[in-house]
Every structure is written in C-alpha cells, then in structure tokens.
Design brief:
The chain has helices at residues 53-56, 172-180, 182-186, 234-237, 251-257, 343-355, 376-391, 395-404, 425-431, 434-441; strands spanning 15-20, 27-28, 35-48, 71-73, 81-91, 95-103, 128-130, 138-140, 150-161, 166-169, 209-211, 215-221, 227-228, 273-277, 285-291, 308-317, 326-328, 364-372, 407-412, 416-424. The protein is an alpha+beta fold.
Length: 443
C-alpha cells in the first residue's frame, strides 16, 4: 500500500504554523491524505471533537474516535522519530456525559465498534440522527428505528469549569436540560460529524465533584497500514484479529503496522513531550479523544470525552527507531522513584559512596516507554522490551532499573502501561534525546 504525499504536491514548501480542524471519519493509515508539510520545529494547533461515546453512537463512523487529518512533518523518514512538545491544551466543552457501556445485540457484526448496522432495516453503517432525548434518541435515517449499538448500564452527565479546573455531575432535571442543548454544551468543531452523547440524558450519580486534568487519549503518528483510529494499539487492536469485516488483520500485521497512538495515558497533557515512531514517509501526526479527567486505567471503559484545542511543536529526531511511543512526563506525573534528585539528595548520596569507596554517581534522567498488549502482563513485557531495544540496556538491567528507579503504571485497560526508569544520560544522548531530557527536567 502506498502513502499519499502531503497535501496536493510532494514538493510543497513546509510551513511553520498549521491549524487543523478536519477529520478522518475513524480511519488512519497510508490511504489518508496528509496536510502540510509542517516544518521541523513548527507549531501545530488542532481543534478536536470528543472521542469514544459520541463516535460509537454515530453509526456512519468506521472507528471509535474522530481524530484530526494527519499532518506531514518535513524531513521525517521511516526509522526516525518525532517529538511532540505539548505547549497548550484547553477544554472547550461546557458539559459532557459518560459511563459504563453495554452492547445492543443484533446491531453489529463481531465487533460493535466497527461493523454497525440497523437491526430493523439491515443497513450497514447507516446515516442516523438525533430525535428527542434519552435512551432511544439515536434513529436510523432509512427506517426511523432506534439504532445505537451502545447503551449505558450506568452513566452520568457532568458540567465542566475549564477556568477553575473542576467539574460536577448533575441530576436528571439538569441532564435533560443539557440534552436539549447538546450541540452547544458539547461545542464540537464546525466540521465534527458526531452525535452528542449528552442527548442520552443519563444521570445516575448526581453531585460528584471531580478535579479536571485534561489530556489527549489518542495522539501520535500514522500506522503503516490502514487501521481504525481507536484500534491503533495492541489491546483494542486485538479485536481486529480474525474478525468478519474488511479491517481484519493477523496478529503479525497488527504489530507491524500500529504506532500505539490510542494509549489513553493521562500524563499525555500540557507540558509533556511525546516521542512517536515514524512508520510512513512524513509520519502523519494526528490527535483527538481529549478527556477532561481520568484516573489510571480508565477503569469504567470510558472517561469524560470533550471538545478541545491543543497546540504543540513537532521536532524530527533522526535515526531514533522505536516501535512505540516514548514519553517525557511532567515531574508531577512521574512515579516517585523516577523523579530526578536535586543537588541536596545527590550530595547525600555522595557521602555514603565515599565511605564505601563508590565514588561514581551516575548522571541520569527519567524516561517512560509505553507498552501495549492483549493484557497488562503482556503490555508490561512489551514496554520493557521496548526500553531495552531502544536504550541498548539488557532486559535484566531494565527490570532492575524499573524496580529501584522507576515503576510500572496502568494507562488503559485491558493492556496499555507506562514503564518508567531513570536512564543514564550517556544513553539518552546516544538515542538523540539527551538534550530534550536535560531541558525538560533542568538537569
């Protein structure tokens, strides 16, 4: 499969600033036309509609998200990496809804996220519309039947205060009012095509106060073959293996193609640096699926998906070949054992070293490898293997470093984790990211 060149002409001059508010209808891969190219070091701003609940109740969509059209980065070649420095992230929705899902049997073939159909008229991926509010609001354009393949088993509506970074779940009366004004409350970008989950007016747990901490659940680079945007990872991607629809893959094809952009890692937020693999010429940076907040694991299966705006700069790292994302988290997000020592504790370390004639104290910095797999154990093994492969450490040394100077943390169930270690700066320099780490952590 060939890769489309950047928009209109492969020799189009690179731009230093690009604003994107067009989307891919649930599909990522070489068939998608890239915008740009954006200059190496250039600024990318995106407006993103919510992911998850809204796309999955919009039956015409192919995948479970609505991510931005990919952007080519000048100079990015297969085998390189691209560092995405997130400068700014802002929630634009005033309210959203989420909760635990259940499937409506008979309204999909094999995987409810992909081959959806109207069980009344049999139309696959039917156009649909909102009619009224409540559970039966999603209606088939062809026959008028209630048609969503996804329903709440327990859900909530929540109002958001972006300025003060707090939120509150609401009662049924307020949820009904929000549902009647769903498009304005959700505030999607103009070209977003999804239905609003607020229309279902679910309000099972009113009065719950929660902090806001916005992040992007789907951000990264274009996979080496066409994949559904929500399945560009090993845990959700496993549901493409051996299924009866046109996006079916073998396990080997999935792992060769994916870039693990759908990682639902709540530390991919303002201030972090995400380093992504380049698997197609130009790389094709995309983003979407912003959440207002989420604890580790996204344990309910869905979080508070919102519309938002993100600004980042993209920098090509030549020759850094990685199979999946590498993350430089904000200090507040690092596990305690992986936080760099400042001058005082480092001096304290020198003292016992001198007593025992251990005079060398390693210079190191934190680095996080995203691992993915069919479950958390496999994902952990994957993250550790990636850490060893990219750094040149042995697997055994990676295990020891993760134990005493790092941590394994759940990002997303069923199988995405963060493997964080303190890594020698000499190795980070050899990888080509030493200066990024020094600047990020003021080393």
């Amino acid at each position: 499969m060939t890769t489309n060149p950047p928009d209109t002409h492969p020799m189009k001059p690179a731009v230093k600033h690009l604003h994107v508010e067009t989307y891919t209808n649930g599909l990522l891969g070489p068939s998608q036309l890239m915008l740009g190219p954006l200059a190496d070091g250039g600024t990318l701003v995106t407006g993103t509609p919510p992911g998850c609940w809204r796309p999955i109740i919009t039956l015409a969509f192919q995948g479970g998200h609505e991510v931005t059209q990919p952007v080519a980065i000048a100079g990015a070649e297969v085998g390189d990496a691209v560092a995405l420095k997130i400068q700014r992230m802002r929630v634009t929705s005033m309210a959203t809804s989420s909760g635990v899902m259940k499937f409506a049997e008979g309204r999909y073939h094999g995987d409810p996220f992909v081959p959806k159909l109207c069980s009344t008229c049999g139309t696959e991926h039917p156009a649909s519309h909102i009619e009224g509010i409540g559970t039966a609001a999603i209606r088939c354009n062809h026959c008028g039947a209630e048609v969503s393949a996804f329903q709440f088993s327990h859900g909530y509506a929540i109002v958001l205060d972006e300025e003060n970074q707090v939120s509150l779940t609401v009662n049924q009366q307020v949820a009904d009012r929000l549902a009647g004004n769903a498009p304005q409350m959700s505030a999607p970008p103009e070209l977003g095509a999804q239905h609003s989950i607020l229309s279902l007016a679910r309000a099972d747990i009113p009065g719950v106060a929660a902090h806001m901490r916005p992040f992007l659940g789907n951000i990264g680079t274009t996979p080496a073959r066409d994949l559904l945007d929500s399945h560009n990872c090993a845990d959700f991607g496993q549901y493409l293996v051996g299924v009866p629809h046109r996006y079916a893959l073998t396990t080997e094809e999935l792992h060769a193609a994916k870039t693990d952009g759908h990682m639902d890692t709540n530390s991919v937020r303002e201030g972090c640096i995400l380093i992504c693999p380049v698997k197609v010429p130009g790389t094709g940076v995309h983003m979407g699926d912003m959440r207002a907040q989420q604890g580790n694991g996204e344990i309910a299966g869905h979080a508070t998906d919102v519309s938002g705006e993100t600004e980042l700069t993209a920098e090509v790292i030549k020759g850094l070949t990685t199979d999946g994302p590498i993350l430089l988290q904000n200090v507040d997000d690092l596990p305690p054992m992986a936080r760099p020592m400042n001058a005082t504790p480092r001096q304290k370390v020198v003292e016992p070293g001198a007593r025992w004639a251990q005079h060398e104290v390693e210079q190191c910095g934190p680095i996080t490898f995203i691992g993915s797999g069919v479950n958390l154990n496999v994902a952990t093994e994957n993250g550790l293997r990636r850490a060893a492969a990219v750094s040149g450490l042995s697997c055994e040394e990676a295990l020891n470093r993760a134990t005493i100077t790092g941590s394994i943390e759940i990002s997303q169930l069923p199988g995405t984790v963060r493997v964080t270690i303190l890594c020698p700066l000499a190795i980070l320099d050899r990888m080509g990211i030493g200066q990024l780490v020094r600047e990020k952590y003021q080393l």
